[in-house]
Amino acid sequence: MEKNFYDSDLLKLIAENGKQNMRFFVPMRQVHAIPFIGWGMTSSNDPLHYVECYIDESQYKVEDGYKIQLRACDQRFGSEKYYTCDLASHIAKGIVRIKNYGDYVEEVTLEEPIGGCAVIRTTFEVVANGGRAYA
């Protein structure tokens, strides 16, 4: 994404494409249900996953330019609320990704030999498009 991407650019992009058509990849942790209470919680020990999200206007309206709530399409994850300027900043930095046609999340595992038969294994997720991944 561009370095100079502002909240006005984000609101314009949403208006041009339609709120119902906008999708984002947001790093989130899975929500764990607490039985008999009806609550859910996340743990900082759980790994972050890039999750496809849509704009949820049940609490904040995009037109107000105040906050935008992104709700996960996968019900195992919750939602994230952003000030409009913070969301634009996260998009500019690549923390949150705007979904383009053909984008998907891919898990990548790298192995680095460190001597003998010892190996360091790292697994992470990237947003990929048509076989071309960009972390």
3D architecture notes:
The protein is built from two helices and ten strands. It has helices at residues 7-17, 84-93; strands at 23-28, 32-34, 39-41, 49-56, 67-72, 79-83, 97-98, 103-115, 118-129, 132-134. The radius of gyration is 17 Å and the shape is globular. The relative contact order is 0.19. It has two domains: 7-99, no CATH class; 103-135, no CATH class. The chain has a five-stranded antiparallel sheet, covered by helices on one side. A three-stranded antiparallel sheet has the order 8-9-10, with no helix packed on it. A two-stranded antiparallel ribbon has the order 2-3. It has 135 residues and is of the alpha+beta class.
Write the layout of secondary structure elements.
Layout (H helix, E strand, L loop, with lengths): L6 H11 L5 E6 L3 E3 L4 E3 L7 E8 L10 E6 L6 E5 H10 L3 E2 L4 E13 L2 E12 L2 E3 L1
Antiparallel strand pairs: 1-4, 1-7, 2-3, 4-5, 5-6, 8-9, 9-10
Helix pairs in contact: 1-2
Helix content: 10-25%
Q: Poorly predicted ranges (pLDDT <50, ≥5 residues)?
A: 131-135
Q: What's the end-to-end separation, in Å?
A: 12 Å
> Residue-averaged pLDDT, rounded?
89
**What class do helices, strands and sheet pairing give?**
alpha+beta
Please describe the biggest sheet, giving its number of strands, its sense, and whether it closes into a barrel: 5 strands, antiparallel
Strand content: over 45%
Order of neighbouring strands in the sheet with most strands: 6-5-4-1-7
Return Rg in Å.
17 Å
